[in-house]
Design a protein that fits this description.
The structure holds two protein chains of two kinds. By secondary structure, chain A is an all-alpha fold. Chain A has helices spanning 15-47, 63-73, 84-102, 135-145, 148-156, 160-191, 196-202, 211-214, 216-229, 241-244, 254-279, 291-312, 318-345; strands at 111-112, 124-125. In chain A, helix 3 (84-102) runs parallel beside helix 11 (254-279). Chain A starts with 14 loop residues before the first helix and ends with a helix. Chain B is mostly helical. The chains are: A mainly alpha, B mainly alpha.
């Protein structure tokens, strides 16, 4: 099987390498999701002039462990009239699609396992677990499939808040998929490829070659749509606690609820990586800073931006959300694509 | 039989038979289940598995399009309609004559099998527009779309435009008025009520 490697000639990608990569992604991103909750609480507390978690461990760091113990040991309740099979499958769909989407983007640098380690020594672990030629579409498609998690969860739990949450899921994700797709279309036209590696190489000429300078409108549109697709404030209408209790997650507790959570954080990371690779120069070296540190910094920045926005903005109403999508963002996205096309032709 | 076993132990063969088996099972559930949720879930996951066939064939682009269009968009639109049902209860189906359904269904299935199996049997099947090595799927699809299938492609685009305009006209009768503001004023509420009565 022909595989494209990141920079020049790298060792061949083997099945073992991909398997190790998959396990790494699962383990590390799940852990980051846990650590992300701590970061989120600390950042929010800092911005709201509170302390955040302080009691468990130094600086409240062990709060993650305490939360984990709580999630794992909590009683698992399936509501009486719920469709129990779908109720149990729904959180798995959210988590699974989020992690499958991560298979298509570069996560962590590639490396070769040292020879002295038995069995696996010398195995090359690629940066992208599954380097399909249409990486960017694959990620978008997988995140689109992720809407079935909240949707089925809301419909299966025999709870009116759940139904409203499910309806909002369908509306919000469907609408903002359009904006995500259209905003990514302009950079795709510039690169002429759907592969994330080609995107990275197109921006290898230093900071001036980043697409954010050529496509600032698309970048802003993609970020806004990304917030809506990852269900983050100010667009977290799916589980807007002031209106619909907890939306699609109302009846969930314990680890099933935890899987929704992990899925959401994995999606946040995916969107951050996508934004970094498509608009901010990807994993190219930046001066003396190595590429893999750069992409970690960029992803960390986007992650922080999501927390920042959550602290700064209130929720929007559902009708405002639809108004924003169809009357503001989508026309701008279409105009952006048309203008990009005209500029490229002239 | 030997061919079957040999192909089963290759990666592609195994993936093909696994996906086929699962797809058929899932679509069978879609047809036979009385439960809206089961039918919807199995149809959506069947669509996901069909994209697997495209990936096996090396048509990455079509596989992803299958994911985005069928799973992300069309099935999600179905699910809008599902919101009107009580998803936790079973639907009472009105079964018409079983024999007629059986004969018609069987005949159409037989016809489909014959249509698709005929060129394979004569081994005259040929790729008119084979994939180019080193060129992405998207380019190949694009070249065929904008040369041989240009007219059907544009006609399809026109039909979608017509459907979109029709949809806007049907839905947009009172688009310039905010529904919440109408609700606040009593006069407006009466207007909506009288409209309902007229219907």
């Amino acid at each position: 099987m022909e595989t494209t490697t990141l920079i020049g000639q790298l060792p061949e990608v083997t099945a073992a390498g991909v398997a190790i990569k998959a396990i790494l992604i699962l383990a590390i991103i799940s852990a980051i999701a846990g650590f992300g909750t701590y970061l989120e609480r600390k950042v929010l507390a800092f911005m709201q002039r509170r302390l955040g978690p302080t009691h468990v461990g130094p600086y409240g760091l062990l709060q993650i462990a305490a939360d984990g113990i709580k999630l794992f040991t909590k009683e698992d309740i399936v509501p009486q009239h719920a469709n129990s099979l779908i109720f149990k499958v729904a959180p798995v769909i959210t988590a699974a699609t989020a992690f499958i989407a991560l298979a298509g983007v570069p996560v962590f640098p590639d490396f070769t396992i040292p020879e002295f380690i038995p069995v696996l020594g010398g195995t090359f672990v690629p940066s992208i677990a599954s380097d399909v030629n249409v990486g960017i579409l694959f990620v978008i498609g997988m995140m689109a499939a992720g809407l079935y998690g909240p949707l089925l969860a809301g419909m299966a739990q025999a709870n009116k808040w759940g139904i409203i949450g499910a309806a909002r899921t369908a509306i919000q994700f469907l609408s903002y998929e359009v904006v995500t797709g259209l905003s990514l279309l302009a950079p795709i036209m510039l690169v002429g490829s759907l592969s994330l590696i080609d995107f990275n190489e197109a921006q290898s000429g230093g900071i001036t070659s980043w697409f954010i300078w050529q496509q600032p409108v698309a970048f802003v549109l993609f970020l806004i749509a990304g917030f809506a697709e990852t269900n983050r404030t100010p667009f977290d209408l799916l589980e807007h606690e002031a209106e619909v209790i907890s939306g699609y997650a109302t009846e969930y507790s314990g680890m099933r609820w935890g899987m929704f959570f992990i899925g959401e954080y994995a999606n946040m990371i995916t969107i951050s990586i996508l934004a970094a690779v498509v608009f901010l120069g990807g994993y190219n070296d930046f001066g003396f800073i190595a590429g893999w540190i750069m992409i970690l910094l960029k992803v960390a920045f986007f992650f922080f931006l999501m927390l920042w926005v959550r602290a700064a903005w209130p929720h929007v109403r559902p009708d405002q959300l639809m108004w924003l999508c169809w009357k503001v963002l989508m026309p701008i996205a279409v105009i952006n694509v048309v203008v990009t096309g005209i500029v490229m032709m002239v | 039989m030997e061919n079957f076993l040999a192909s089963l132990f290759t990666f592609q063969g195994f993936a093909f038979y696994l996906f086929s088996f699962l797809t058929i099972i899932l679509f069978w559930i879609t047809v036979m289940s009385n439960n809206v949720l089961y039918a919807m879930t199995s149809l959506a996951s069947g669509m996901v598995l069909i994209s697997g066939f495209f990936f096996i064939l090396g048509a990455d682009f079509l596989g992803v399009v299958q994911l985005i269009v069928y799973v992300g968009a069309i099935m999600a639109l179905y699910s809008f309609a599902m919101m009107f049902f009580d998803a936790t209860r079973e639907i009472k189906e009105k079964n018409t004559n079983g024999a007629v359904v059986f004969v018609l269904g069987g005949l159409s299935a037989l016809m489909l099998v014959l249509m698709f199996a005929a060129p394979i049997h004569s081994e005259s099947i040929q790729a008119l527009y084979p994939m180019h090595e080193g060129v992405g799927n998207a380019q190949d699809v694009g070249i065929v779309l904008f040369t041989k299938y240009l007219v059907p492609f544009e006609v399809a685009a026109l039909m979608l435009l017509v459907a979109m305009i029709a949809g806007i006209i049907l839905a947009g009768k009172k688009m310039d008025q905010s529904l919440t503001e109408i609700m606040d004023e009593d006069a407006g509420e009466d207007e909506i009520l009288t409209q309902k009565d007229e219907k």
